[in-house]
Amino acid sequence: TLPTISTLLLLLQTVVSGSRHEPGYCAFYDECGRNPSVGGSLIPPIVPCLNYSPARVLGPEHYQELKKVCPMLDRGEGQTTACCSVKQLKSLERSLMMSKALLNRCPSCADNFGHFHCISTCSPNQSVTINVTRTANITSQGTVREAVVAYQAYLSTSFADKAFDSCKSVRIPSTGGLAIGTMCGRYGSALCTPQRWYDFQGDSSNGLAPLDIDFRLIPEGVTGAVPAGIVPYNGTALGCNEKTPTGGEVCSCQDCQASCPVLPPPPALPAPFTIGGVDGYLVICATLLGFLILTERLIHPSEVTCIDRNSLVAQEFLGSWFQAWGTLIASHPFKVLLASAVVVGAFATGLMYIELTTDPVQLWSAPDSRARKEKDMHDKYFDPFFRTNQLILTAPGRPSYIYDSLIFGKQNFSGIISKDLILELLKLQTRIQSIEFWSDDLNRTASLKDVCFAPLNPSNPSLTDCAVNSLPQYFQNSVDNINKKVNMTKLGVTKEVDWKDHFIYCVKSSKRHFLLFSDILDCFNPAFIISHLSDDSYTNAEALILTFSLNNYPRENVKFNIAMEWEQRFLDILKEYQMSPGNPFTFAYMAERSLEDEINRTTAEDIPIFMISYAVIFVYISVALGEYTSFSRILVDSKFLVGLGGILVVGCSVLASMGFYAWIGIPSSLIILQVVPFLVLAVGADNIFIFVLEYQRDARRPNEKREEQIGRVLGNVAPSMLLCSVSESVCFFLGALSTMPAVRSFALYAALAVVLDFVLQMTAFVALLSLDCKRQDRNRCEVVCCITVKTPAPSKPNEGFLLPIMRKYYAPVLLHPVTRVIVMVVFITMLMSSIYLMLHVTVGLDQELAMPKGSYMLEYFKYLYAYFEVGVPTYFVTTKGFDFSKVMGMNAVCSSVGCDPFSLTQKIQYASEYPQRSYLAVPANSWVDDFIDWLNPGSGCCRLYTEGPDEGKFCNATSKRCGKCMEKPDNGVLRPNVTQFNRFLPDFLGNRPDLKCPKGGLGAYDKAVVRDENGEIIATRFMAYHTALTTSREFTAALKTARELAHNITLTMRKINDTPPDFEVFPYTVTYVFYEQYLTIVSEGVFIISLCLLPTFVVCCLLLGMDVRSGTLNLLTIIMITVDTVGVMTLWGIDYNAVALINLVTAVGISVEFVSHMTRSFALSIQPTHIERAKEATATMGSAVFAGVAMTNLPGIVVLAFAKAQLIQIFFFRLNLVITLLGLAHGLIFLPVLLSYFGPGINKAVLLRIQQAKGQLRELSSNSLPVYDNMTFENQ
């Protein structure tokens, strides 16, 4: 026949010419059988037969198969010749299908990828592009034939470069990584080149190539390296922004940079505010400082008789009322004490219903806050974020070594990547996985599988289904697999390969997943189990990471208790293992419960510190209140019981406040238990000292009863106590307007406690003092009242030792003309400096500060920041209303060919290209993209039974007798219609991924799409990854940028037809709910503190009879204390956060004590000059404030320095020490000087009333003309 004659002529010509490389001739043809040198391949390694013969003209069936697999070789039916059989075409199609499953989203890339394989396999000019280098005899069906097992393939660099460029940016939606990284062997995407890309394709050890292909990339014009007759293939490779000849659309922007629209770069960050190259805020503060200093002058207030009269009326009314009240209470002490006890007991019974909030989410995030609502919605539809239990292991001191791999070449291995350590890690992992314990809730033995996160089998998981991220998973947790060794041949070289080769393969493998599904899928993203030095050099690992993920159950679910118990046993094992002498690792660890455990442990351990602090304060008050006129009267003059009573008053007010709010259902917190008693004690002790010291300094008038003297003294000091208490309580009640639950509940508890403390001081404490005064009058000892001392009491009032010192030395020195100027300059300089520092205070609370010193969690945070390369996952969640089933809906979300260049996933991709600004390290995965790829017939995933009882139903990729779900459209842009979308989406979400279909959605996406009973998508999410975030500033900035991005996406998607206006895309990750407060905490803090400052001005004005000047100076000093406190916070490294805000609100309350008493004392003084009045106020009231506020707080604060909790050391010891010292400095140094310059003028109405009273007394005692004292006063 004619073909036989042609073949004979060809053979004759070959013999004559000696050449085997001629156009129109084949080097091999048809299939000979399995390649004997390839084992463990993912597909059968079928190799062709050596057959130098002319290219065959294809018959109709053969032609149609070629047109489908290799359309670039189509020359028309009856005109097309090729060097491959139908069997070869089908094998080539199967081989290309697994790789094209990752590349089909970019049609030109998929076309280029298959292009040269079609040329080398089927081209009619096959013999001029390849050179057979090795053959082997293969016996098939009793026939021995010579098969090709290796050849050289020649192609031009221009074709190879362009083909590589079209594929280098194609992404894998489920991971966000680059597909090219899975096709470049040990080099990954970062180091991949065209040569390395083709080398990996031709490596028979990659599991896909049936034989070894040595790709030779030849630059144009180079002929020396090319055998005679060989012509490097130089066909047309498509650019990724070009359509394919079969009509495939250009690749999307996410897969092809050339397809991206021209986008302007993100705007530059705002430049720092400068003036003349210097910090602008510093210049402004310095200028203002100079202005204030240079413009200092005396102000002569005009005489306002109306204000004088109002002040007198206010003081007389309050004084007379409190005098009558005090006399009444002192006259019936036992009845008052009993009534006080009954009222306090009634309030305190509410403590039976108290709820102590320890959940950080409930403490710091308001139920109606945006982050809380988004968290609730996410957890409602997608389940809460799983519980993480993790180890980070290092092996310092272990030497590195070189391994010469047959497959990957020489590789440097760090000491921690060693066989003995992997086996040791597997041993520890197995021990943890084997945790079992009896559960009363389940009434059986519980284990890991009862609570583990098992995305591939959530309903009935086994231990192997549990999500465990670890290096031994690369070896299916098998010791035998780790020990396994086999011989492998590559390019004619046979060598032993072992676990190290498998490890390298896995960190480069195409089977990566960002979630570990089970130990069935042995290779997943190494970033979650290995910390390495540089990109893709995982053999140089610094640390190994072992993670167990558990389901996050609600606290009321019985499995929550099981998860907590499992985690406790997990921690126990690790603590024991860490102490064992044979442990080769240095490691840090944590469980999901660790944060809460450590905080609770620290609180319990620091309770004695607080008790000691209160005890020190109690001892000081008891000692300081005593008069001590003589040694023999120490037990008579001491005020032990009065001091104890004052402490009990504070305690009762706190208990009553807590009981009341427990009655009405407002929960308490540990912060309230720690701070409110301390605050009320500081406020209450001041009032106690003022009252008791005023009583001790007062002389009883003739014929005046002791009860009347107590009432009169109370009438003198109670208005000042009322001024402070009302200011503080209103301040705290206004602070309850805060949106942060912890701040709100603290403010409510503190406000009521201050009110009740004042009420009990006006009742129970007055009664207690009355009883003590009667005891003292009878010279009876404290505690042992039956003992009477014969030494009589002194006839003169006892001023103590502090008042004479303040009057004789301190006040004159402070109010010396030179000292006054220095004080004003120093404090104004402090204010300006603090304003500048305040603008640079760090906002946030780093989570490690919540841990006590020495906690194992501190070591974990150190390891986490040092070794973790991937940040927390963040989800872009869509709400109900968007129609994903329509083409426009899919295009608005996806990022593959045919998608909108400004789609949801594409915008996230744009943002991830600027990780320093967006804090996004990995683009979002996309179930829409993978669903479309899954439907693509080229992926071999979506198939339907064509016969049998299940005909027309979905069948997986491994089943037989199945056909494709959809036809591939001519333009390559496959989109299901609404019916197909709704039909196949459940099959996609339930399809378990495997080697033949890596696009299955089970595990990756089955929880990412939520549908209602009608099949409508009501919520879905797209997962991206943040960069590694370490500080509060970074977490807050990441939240802010993610919200800005989500809002931009929302506005775009709302433009799609039929999308409702309330549709929204929002970002969510587990940390957002904690860091949202820092987006607004500065403005909210200014608002809350401003509200707290307002009553200090208003109340002062009202209670001093509309004395605006006193109120203004009072307010100014408190503002200075607050601003200076924030300035010192910046210097001392105290961050501004919700805990600091609580302390700043407290600072306003304590500042009122330092300032208001002094201001009122000055305003009511009748000394003739400003300076004399300031001296009197400093000596009389300043001594009481020093003894009652400063010296009450300081001993207790110093004790807090020994607390273990860093939060207490920083925000209670440091910050309260700063508040107290600054309050003391401003109240006893700055304020007297300020009042001496700018204080209100003498109240002439008060002076006149006193003069008239004295004149009347003298007139009654003698008939002489009236003589008035203090006739000289400033006429200002």
UniProtKB/TrEMBL annotation:
Report the leader peptide range: 1-18
Task: Give the keywords, sorted.
Answer: Cholesterol metabolism, Disulfide bond, Glycoprotein, Lipid metabolism, Membrane, Signal, Steroid metabolism, Sterol metabolism, Transmembrane, Transmembrane helix, Transport
Q: Which InterPro entries match?
A: HMGCR/SNAP/NPC1-like_SSD, NPC1_MLD, NPC1_N, SSD
Annotated membrane-spanning segments are: 607-628, 640-664, 670-693, 713-740, 746-771, 813-839, 1085-1106, 1113-1132, 1138-1156, 1177-1203, 1215-1239
Q: Tell me one GO biological process term.
A: cholesterol metabolic process
Indicate the segments forming the SSD domain, all copies. 606-771
Q: How does it sit in the membrane?
A: Multi-pass membrane protein
Q: PANTHER family, from UniProt?
A: NPC INTRACELLULAR CHOLESTEROL TRANSPORTER 1, NPC1-LIKE INTRACELLULAR CHOLESTEROL TRANSPORTER 1
Tell me the Pfam families matching this sequence. NPC1_MLD (PF22314), NPC1_N (PF16414), Sterol-sensing (PF12349)
A Gene Ontology molecular function term for this protein is:
cholesterol binding
Per its record, the protein catalyses: cholesterol(in) = cholesterol(out)
User: Mostly located where?
Assistant: membrane
How is this protein annotated for GO cellular component? Answer: endomembrane system; plasma membrane
Any idea what this protein is called? SSD domain-containing protein
Could you tell me where this protein is found in the cell?
Endomembrane system
The UniProt similarity line reads: Belongs to the patched family.
